[in-house]
Amino acid sequence: MSKYCRRTVLRSAAALTGGAIAIGYGALALGGPSAAAPLKGNPRFPFLEGAFAPVREEVTEFDLPVTGRIPRELNGRYLRIGPNVLGLEDPRAHHWMLGEGMVHGVRLRDGRAEWYRNRWVRSSSVARKLGEPYPWPVPEQDYACNTHVIAHNGRILTLLESGPPPYELDGELNTLGPYDFGGTLDGAFTAHTKFDAQVNELHAISYSPLWDHVRHLVVDAEGRVTRTRMIPVAGSPMMHDFALTQRHVVLFDVPVTFDPEAAAAGDPVPYVWNDKHPPRVGVLPRSGGQVRWFDAPRAVVFSHTLNAYDHGHSVVVDVTTFPAPFYAGGRGSGGPGATGTPSLDRWTIDLAHGRLRTIRIDDRPQEYPRINDALVAHRHRYGYSASAAEMFQAYLTVDGAVPDRAFHNALIKHDLVRGSSEVHRFAKGAAASEPVFVPASGHGAAGRRIAEDDGYVLAYVHNPDRNASDLVILAAQDFGGKPVARVHLPARVPLGFHGNWVPDAVSS
């Protein structure tokens, strides 16, 4: 067994030169509803300030105030996860992606917002820091998952890539323990799954710095890993996301690779930009067979998948991309660093002629793209993405110097058939998180086809007037109009990663 696991790969093991200065929560003002201020006389740490600032407390609040009317058909939980560092001693040794996972949830039922809760995922280390018992066997690689929260087979699962198993939660966000899919998961899982609703399969691509390959996993409707395929990949790339179609799995082999020397030196995130690692896109048949690799553009770096589908002898993939190079470990900001902002692109892989074509769909800064999840792996028309000013400013920060470029806060709806878009804008300081589409239910006569965008878009948005967050509910077919409802939360939800709507049929 190599010495490189998630604990050593994604955690600093080296003391800072020149003597460590203990800077605790008090100095950084990382708690309560207020935004944290930068340290005077010290470099900025944008991923610990403002909209990113971690919260100190777990909060439970019932009967939340609402502006507008919550649609009565929305019965379930809106959940989103992100890093929320616990017990920070020195921000210079910290990286945003290493923060312990915290889930934020709002329970909606019959037109009411019944509760808001935020809870740290109880890994063994989180339980120890909170002075609580850890009642389960400690996994070989254990971490408080912080990247995604999904529902599958009646379970709520928090996810993290490259090593640790998922953690399961109950409907009130309490941790039920690590989850290995009934003993069928062997090794790492993923932060980004793809669920093909038409065949009831959950797909994953997992990677690890311990492996000379990546793995394609298929989880069945009973929650068991029924198929594992190993795809040889050299250089240990960070394969954060992938794409799925009805017939294919699409892999993104990017030039962000594991660096053993950086790990040995104590780099918190020892994945570095590697000019010697050529970017590629792999197409793997779902039915079996070998992967086909295609050269990918060197000028951009894949970030997240909107969706993908088969089109004749081609595979169409809509993705957000950053301009190259991309620095996963950052550039002295305490988080990932970029040389520009992400845009929405379309990559068309021509399987008949062996080539890949790219077009820019929208060059406005945007991330965290989503669709109506019923269409994952199938042709879609609409997509939704988020633009958060503080996120882009943080990504462009170098050695504590925040750029003076202005960005906007908004959610964007794309019509990929007409080539048009609608924008729902928010105020300055109102950072918007990932948008999640929730389909309408009970509309129309029996047998009438429901439109792809017949439903709602939900997102946590910071409310600068209250220094807390709102759950904003938009009518997807009136995207630029006034929100259907704003649920006023009692706390901030820091800018984080991904989430989902979990209907009552799953979470009750």
The strand order across the widest sheet is 1-5-4-3-34
Oligomerization: single chain
* Residue windows where pLDDT falls under 50 for at least 5 positions: 1-8, 10-40, 443-447
Percent helix among the residues? under 10%
Biggest β-sheet strands, sense, barrel: 5 strands, antiparallel
Number of strands: 34
Spatial extent as radius of gyration: 21 Å
Name the shape in a single word.
globular
Please report the distance between the alpha carbons of the first and last residues: 41 Å
Summarize the entry for a quick read.
This protein is mainly beta.
Walk me through the structure.
- There is one protein chain.
- By secondary structure, the protein is mostly beta strands.
- The protein has a 5-stranded antiparallel β-sheet. A 5-stranded antiparallel β-sheet has the order 2-33-32-31-30, with no helix packed on it.
- It is globular.
- The N terminus is likely disordered.
Topology at a glance:
Blueprint: H1 6-9, H2 25-28, E1 60-62, E2 66-68, E3 76-83, E4 101-109, E5 112-120, H3 124-129, E6 148-152, E7 155-159, E8 167-169, E9 175-178, E10 194-196, E11 201-206, E12 213-219, E13 225-232, E14 243-244, E15 248-253, E16 256-258, H4 260-264, E17 271-273, E18 280-285, E19 292-295, E20 300-311, E21 314-323, E22 326-327, E23 337-338, E24 343-350, E25 355-362, E26 367-370, E27 382-387, H5 389-395, E28 409-415, E29 420-426, E30 436-439, E31 455-463, E32 468-475, E33 485-488, E34 499-503, H6 504-507
Antiparallel strand pairs: 1-5, 2-33, 3-4, 3-34, 4-5, 6-7, 7-8, 8-9, 10-11, 11-12, 12-13, 14-15, 15-18, 16-17, 18-19, 20-21, 21-24, 22-23, 24-25, 26-27, 27-28, 28-29, 30-31, 31-32, 32-33
